[in-house]
Amino acid sequence: MATATEQWVLVEMVQALYEAPAYHLILEGILILWIIRLLFSKTYKLQERSDLTVKEKEELIEEWQPEPLVPPVPKDHPALNYNIVSGPPSHKIVVNGKECINFASFNFLGLLDNPRVKAAALASLKKYGVGTCGPRGFYGTFDVHLDLEDRLAKFMKTEEAIIYSYGFATIASAIPAYSKRGDIVFVDRAACFAIQKGLQASRSDIKLFKHNDMADLERLLKEQEIEDQKNPRKARVTRRFIVVEGLYMNTGTICPLPELVKLKYKYKARIFLEESLSFGVLGEHGRGVTEHYGINIDDIDLISANMENALASIGGFCCGRSFVIDHQRLSGQGYCFSASLPPLLAAAAIEALNIMEENPGIFAVLKEKCRQIHKALQGISGLKVVGESFSPAFHLQLEESTRSREQDVRLLQEIVDQCMNKNIALTQARYLEKEEKCLPPPSIRVVVTVEQTEEELERAASTIKEVAQVVLL
Amino acid sequence: MANPGGGTVCNGKLHNHKKQSNGSQRRNCTKNGIVKEAQQNGKPHFYDKLIVESFEEAPLHVVVFTYMAYGIGTLFGYLRDFLRNWGIEKCNAAVERKEQKDFVPLYQDFENFYTRNLYMRIRDNWNRPICSAPGPLFDVMERVSDDYNWTFRFTGRIIKDVINMGSYNFLGLADKYDESMKTIKDVLEVYGTGVASTRHEMGTLDKHKELEDLVAKFLNVEAAMVFGMGFATNSMNIPALVGKGCLILSDELNHTSLVLGARLSGATIRVFKHNNTQSLEKLLRDAVIYGQPRTRRAWKKILILVEGTYSMEGSIVHLPQILALKKKYKAYLYIDEAHSIGAVGPTGRGVTEFFGLDPHEVDVLMGTFTKSFGASGGYIAGRKDLVDYLRVHSHSAVYATSMSPPIAEQIIRSLKFIMGLDGTTQGLQRVQQLAKNTRYFRQRLQEMGFIIYGNENASVVPLLLYMPGKVAAFARHMLQEKKIGVVVVGFPATPLAEARARFCVSASHTREMLDTVLEALDETGDLLRLKYSRHKKSARPELYDETSFELED
Question: How many domains is chain B partitioned into structurally?
Answer without folding.
Answer: 3
